[in-house]
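Students often ask why inverse folding is considered easier than folding. One informal answer: many sequences map to the same fold, so there is more than one right answer. In these notes we will look at a single instance of the problem. The structure comes first.
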């Protein structure tokens, strides 16, 4: 994990938040909105397991950088957690076993720190706007504290790879499977426009132990797919356009504007079944061909053969293609916009 630069405003804010003494605008006068001591906007980031104290998570860094570009007038200060996040195989094994050992203790410390910072800002800097973000272990801590009570100053929350992920939450985003949940437990849904909880379908941390067969590649790439940037755009713009849900679109819908077939894609399939498709999507191994009520799945591997079909109205196209036997890598290509 790399450290992000820390400017003088961050040093000032950390000093203020980390002690109860009178400093820079919080002296005897008790000013609640001193321009010297209270930044306009703070992004609080809590990193993942194994990260050193003061480390900024990689997706949290990209989220903050993008927010600063989109909201230059907001004078955004980044505040990473000053605590070490315990990690390692033994620590993670203890967490999965739900033992109150190092991982649990690390989360409790992070939650206590975050709770204290939020209460301190509410007391001394009531005009400061706050964004919360957490990755992995940090996502668990941020999500738990945010759900404890109302925090009026919090303008948005972005979680990456939450081990308490809930696939049925309307705030959840990504290519996850709805029936899979976090490896530790399933939190109560946020169902909030202020929250974006991102999860990758092969990430064992947010999709459960069954995905450990993929290792942690899909848990370690939340900074590489444009998701922090998209979340920053959403948090910046949703209030202005009154968008009813986040603009982050998972690859889990039929690509009905796509046509990879011939100019006129007429096909005979099975016994005298003529398909007059509305759209088609193909890669080198498969085609999916959609009509108003049915999506036909065609294998190109050994000829041109229908291997199944899925109802157009299905709520989870990925699951439908998976059940027909299409590999994950081909599903990603077929459902891409």
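Output (designed amino acids):
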């Amino acid at each position: 994990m790399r450290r992000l630069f820390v400017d003088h405003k961050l040093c000032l804010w950390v000093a203020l938040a980390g002690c109860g003494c009178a400093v820079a605008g919080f002296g005897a006068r008790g000013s609640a909105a001193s321009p010297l001591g209270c930044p306009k906007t703070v992004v609080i980031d809590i990193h993942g397991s194994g990260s050193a104290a003061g480390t900024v998570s990689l997706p949290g860094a990209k989220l903050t950088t993008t927010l600063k570009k989109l909201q230059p007038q907001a004078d955004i200060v980044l505040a990473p957690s000053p605590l070490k996040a315990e990690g390692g195989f033994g620590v993670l094994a203890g967490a999965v076993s739900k033992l109150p050992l190092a991982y649990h203790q690390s989360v409790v410390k992070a939650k206590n720190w975050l709770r204290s910072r939020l209460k301190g800002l509410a007391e001394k800097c009531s005009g400061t706007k706050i964004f919360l973000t957490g990755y992995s272990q940090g996502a668990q801590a941020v999500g738990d504290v945010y759900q404890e009570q109302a925090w009026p100053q919090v303008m948005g929350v972005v979680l990456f790879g939450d081990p308490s992920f809930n696939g049925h939450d309307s705030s959840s985003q990504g290519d996850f499977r709805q029936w899979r949940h976090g490896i530790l437990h399933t939190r109560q849904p946020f169902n909030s426009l202020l929250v974006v909880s991102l999860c990758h379908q092969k990430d064992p941390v947010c999709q459960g132990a069954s995905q450990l067969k993929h290792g942690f590649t899909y848990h370690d790439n939340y900074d590489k797919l444009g998701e922090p940037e998209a979340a920053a755009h959403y948090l910046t713009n949703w209030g202005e356009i009154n968008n009813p849900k986040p603009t982050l679109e998972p690859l889990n819908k039929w690509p009905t504007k796509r046509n990879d077939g011939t100019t006129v894609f007429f096909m005979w399939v099975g016994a005298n079944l003529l398909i007059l498709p509305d759209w088609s999507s193909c890669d080198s191994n498969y085609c999916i061909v959609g009509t108003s009520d049915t999506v036909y799945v065609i294998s190109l591997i050994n000829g041109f053969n229908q291997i199944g079909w899925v109802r157009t109205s299905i709520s989870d196209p990925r699951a439908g293609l998976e059940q027909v036997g299409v590999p994950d890598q081909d599903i990603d290509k077929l459902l891409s916009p």
